[in-house]
Amino acid sequence: MRYVDEFRQQSLAKRLSAAIAAEVEPRRRYNLMEFCGGHTHAIFRYGVQDLMPDNVSFVHGPGCPVCVLPIGRIESAIELVKTQHVTLCTYADLLRVPAGGGRSLLKVKAAGADVRMIYSTLDALRIARENPNRQVVFFAIGFETTTPPTAVAIRQAQAEGLDNFSVFCNHVLTPAAIQNILESPEVRELAGVSIDGFFGPSHVSSVIGSRPFEFFAEEYQKPVVIAGFEPLDVMQSALMLVRQINSGRHEVENEYTRVVTREGNVKAQNLVAEVMELRRSFEWRGLGVVPYSALRIKQSYADFDAERRFELPVSSAAEVKGCECPSILRGARRPTDCRLFGTVCTPENPMGSCMVSSEGACAAYWSYGRFRDPEESPDAVA
Amino acid sequence: MSKRFPLRLNIRQGAVDMTHGSGGRAMAQLIEELFVKHLDNDLLRQANDQAMFEVPAGRMVISTDGHVISPLFFPGGDIGSLAIHGTLNDVAMSGARPLYLSAGFILEEGFPLIDLERVVVSMSAAAESAGVAVVTGDTKVVERGKGDGIFITTTGIGLVPAGVNISGDRARPGDAILVSGTIGDHGVAIMSSRENLVFETSIESDSAALHTLVADLVAAVPEIHCLRDPTRGGLATTLNELARQSAVGMRLREEDIPVKPQVNAACELLGLDPLYVANEGKLVCICERRHAAQLLRVMRAHPLGSSAALIGEVVEDRHGFVQMETRFGGSRIVDWLAGEQLPRIC
Questions:
Q1: CB A203 to CB B244 under 8 A?
Q2: For residue B72, which of B41, B105, B98 has the smallest C-alpha distance?
Q3: pLDDT number for residue A320
């Protein structure tokens, strides 16, 4: 098996589509939230919505690491490259996120700062090795999936005595964010946005396992199905969620059994626990300050913590006026509910974070789905 | 070779320096012993600041293209062959037969002469196999740090056969959309040879001159509506350009778009979409539906069109959307590329 297109077969999709249609109760609505940007992307890229009955809706959640990073952290990174003249390495999507004053890492790079796009933390280590006279900072973002590679890089840097390498740690935790959404008054009290079930993260769950989600299923009485990122995974999981909802169950089920176990990757978990610890609180774009929702580097690895090494300025920047990213990230509003969507905010000129990454709900909706209601996209032809 | 210069150019160990762009003897020697030597033809040998030739009657086209690719050498080509193919293709996409090329070189101080020779030899081979000569040129040298080794701008002129009227604004609802072969090969070959992306692939760039293929196509069906080579931004961008120019929509079928499995796999790994990855030896052809089968046969009979395919049709759509039936059975928009295609994180 090559794992490229095996989980994209149309014949199986059609069978699943028919099975879901047969399973849903016609008078009922099924609002299913996919937490992860990876699911959002798959749903739009493959047109999964077209294969769903009308009363099954996907609600896009906050699981896009680029989207939830507060502007202030990007401001800090920009200040770091500009004032300390470090080489800043990061994953690609982040380069385009707009910060205050129309700035972004991409623009700072164009103005001469040394900002590198990398694919792997190993690339950041290599850049540090090759440039012993420069401070190389890895701007680390992401959920539990990208955290172990960061931990590996820190351990490797320590083993090699690579003292010009450090990490600006912005790793965040999925369970804390899901809990925050479930406790959000909009989600609990407004009838319009009740979420009936969750697609659990796939890559994240490969690391943390399915067990952390058992608490949500039990406490909030919502079904969770851990779902792979391929379109057939999404459909199979939708069927499993519909069945749980119909029978009044709220369990954690695992569709992504080819990768995810209940315990997860214990080795990776231990590695992260050795290098990082919980932050008391962390600001999320869209969700605000969420307690115990992020990781920082432990005292024993403090030498590799860019926040300590450079005494990073803490900046906070306000959202663009009118931007609905915070509500969209909680699933309380849809991209087309935002007045900026498609008018001043487009992937070419993103105002809010959901339009930046292709995993962001607004960008995915704009790029792949806006023909569904073309009347609402006045800029469609331009 | 001429005996005007007492010492031969030291190509093996030498490098470009500022004197090579100064207009003096060093520049004359570089031109003679490197550029003219390899690109040699009657018009270039006139050694004037311009090339003079007779103009045939009819409509001519002119096109120019700057080449700044990194890395300079990649699987399946280099900046030299690319500079020839790119401009020949831009000329040919009007249906024209390319006649002459010019080349402007911007060299960075310190660029090794051996690399320069390799590039010029490759240009020469590409021009010769295309049957189109580089008849005039220019060389400038910029200080170290102000260029990326070598930039090449080429300009081409060509003659459009009578009765051929190909333009990006001529796509009409009901027209068929053809592509001459697998997409994404060039972009993936380039990415695989960039230093920060360590992966191995057998994919080579598809860089090729398409004018003989175009000649076959227009000979068979002079009424072709649009031709365009989907270079930067890939097939998706080209189709969006054509949709906008013609004020129409398009509907594609993903399963009919030819993509090599290795290209698909590399894109999967890198988080890219092959629809947005560059090509340098493919063309998109839009024609009346009744001509599609014939043109497809002509493409497949040509060595550069063996995996040509009918991938969709032009539809009426005031929004100008390019839509696609996904292989999965759903549908989506194939949008303009926003910014650069950047890999996703998760």
A1: no
A2: B105
A3: 77
Helix (H) or strand (E) holding B78: strand B77-78
What is the interface pTM, i.e. ipTM, of the complex?
Answer: 0.75
CATH (one of 3.90.1150.10, 3.30.9.10, 3.40.50.300, 3.30.1330.10) for B18-160: 3.30.1330.10
Domain boundaries, chain A: 28-318, 325-367
d(CA A37, CA A96): 17
Task: Please give the class, per CATH, of domain A28-318.
Answer: alpha beta
φ/ψ of A111, rounded to 5, equals -80, 5
The dihedral through the CA atoms of B74, B78, B81, B86 has a sign that is positive
Q: Determine the pLDDT at residue A282.
A: 92
- Kindly report the CA angle at B305 between B186 and B184, in degrees rounded to 5? 20
Cα–Cα distances in angstroms (integers) from residue B206 to residues A330, B304, B306, in the given order = 45, 9, 13
DSSP assignment string, B110-144: T-BHHHHHHHHHHHHHHHHHHT-EEEEEEEEEE-T
Structural domain spans, chain B: 18-160, 176-333
| pLDDT tens column, B89-143 | 999 999 999 999 999 999 999 999 999 999 999 999 999 999 999 999 999 999 9
Query: Distance between alpha carbon B329 and the CA centroid of its chain, in Å?
Result: 33
- The Cα of A127 is separated from the nearest Cα of chain B by a number of Å equal to 10
Partner-chain residue, chosen from A13, A91, A368, that has the shortest CB–CB distance to B332: A368
Residues facing A203 on adjacent strands: none
pLDDT at A120 over 50: yes
Min CA distance, B272 vs chain A (Å)? 11
Residue A354's pLDDT is what? 84
In chain A, which residue's Cα lies nearest the Cα of B270?
A119
- pLDDT tens per residue, range B289-298: 999 999 999 9
Greater pLDDT, B341 or B156? B156
Correct CATH for B176-333 of 3.40.640.10, 3.30.300.230, 3.90.650.10, 3.20.20.70: 3.90.650.10
Contacts of B327 in chain A (CB under 8 A): 5, 8, 10, 46
Are A67 and A286 a contacting pair, CB within 8 Å? yes
Angle value at C-alpha B149, between B148 and B153, nearest 5 degrees: 85
Q: Which residues of A touch B236 (CB under 8 A)?
A: none
